[in-house]
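Exam revision sheet. Question 4 asks you to relate a sequence to its structure. Input first:
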Amino acid sequence: MERNISSRLSSFLKENIVERKAMFLPFLCVVTFMLVGYAAVDKEAPVIETSRIELPYGEEFDASALYITDNQTSRELLEVTVNTDSLDVNQIGVYTITVEAIDQFSNVATKVVTVSVVDNKGPEFNVLGSNEGYTIVVPVMGSEDITSYMEAVDNVEGDVTPFIETSADLDTSAIGFQTITLTVSDSAGNVTEETYEFAISDDEAPVIELLSGSSYTLNYGDKFDIYDIVDIYDNFDESLDIVVNGEVDEELLGDSQEIEITATDGSGNETSQVVTVTVKDIESPSLSLSKSYVEVKEGATFTALNYVSSASDNYDGNLTSSVTASSISTSSTGTKTVTYTVTDSSGNTTTKTLKVYVYDSSISAGAQSAVTYAKTKIGSPYVYGATGSYSFDCSGFTQWCFKQAGVSIPRTAASQASSGTYVSRSNLQVGDLVFYSAYSGGSVTHVGIYVGNGMIIHCSSSKGVCYASLDVMNYVTARRY
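Answer key, structure tokens:
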């Protein structure tokens, strides 16, 4: 076929160009080009030189990385297609892809190329917080854990902060600079090493803690001390420069007085607080009584104010004459309470009470007094053979009570039961001694003091000095002293 076409072209040229000489020269050139072009038709396919390629983890595959040559068509004019369906750039491993290259003459080349997805990138250090560059600001006395200020992130493994190694330990106990080299590696063996400067600094101001808020009431007559109203401390400096602007007049009642407290640490960090101080009389008067307990015979005259020792106030001075007392009646027996009250000019009030025992005139003063002393020992422990004044046995307790009242009685329960005046159970009075046996019909082994209303006070071996029913044990007899 090619020979036939060539013959036809030669005949055409001879007829129309050589013999007839009727055609223009340009037409000759066109035909000549066609003949030469035909002679240069390309039948050779491109060559895909690349057999294996490494692809960094996470990067998209770029066909331009393939080395492909062609005898006629330049690389940029080749039509290259790549089938990457089996390729996962986010998974390290070895994959195969199919590459097809077509030149301008439609010659086709195909090849299976091996792609290794590899991790060749080391972890990156990131500075946490607002720090930038290679100088990291660290608070003095702050965390000494590097990972409080730095992190390391790997493109494949993510957070590798726990694997950071340091050339030195971070010391935040003193202000200054520290240069530390950080090193971290990933499981692929990629190592990153960077050096940072850590600036240990104090940029935290002292704290002025208001103990009572921004308004403080100072009691009239008390000395003003700022440490009664504030607690001042710093994260680093123990010694602070504290300045108080303004003064407090401790005797100026009612008016608000403003002061400003300023604290400055060694790094120049400063804090101020304004406090309003008002002087007021908030202290109640003092009130003293000569006694807390008195005994009065039934029907006797009782003057409550006779037992006031003194009353005074921080602002008003002596208020003894201003004390008032509630009244009681001595027409009936029993324990009664007198309430004493004193109030200063600011309305502060103090009260105290006096116990008054109105006793039957037929009962001796000694017996009454013995009962009074017995009540003061409620709760004292039992100790065998003890006679007071902090521990007792049963008869040691009764002997001690009567001794305080000025009455002498025998030491043991049996001997106490053999002295004094016999009293029948139906005629018991306050202050009588009541005797008991451990079993019915037995001899005297225990004693207590009758206090009325079917009750006694005794020193029990299990409970110490306490109240008990008249029937606490086997009743034997009673005596009056």
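Marking note for examiners. DSSP finds five helices and 32 strands in the chain.
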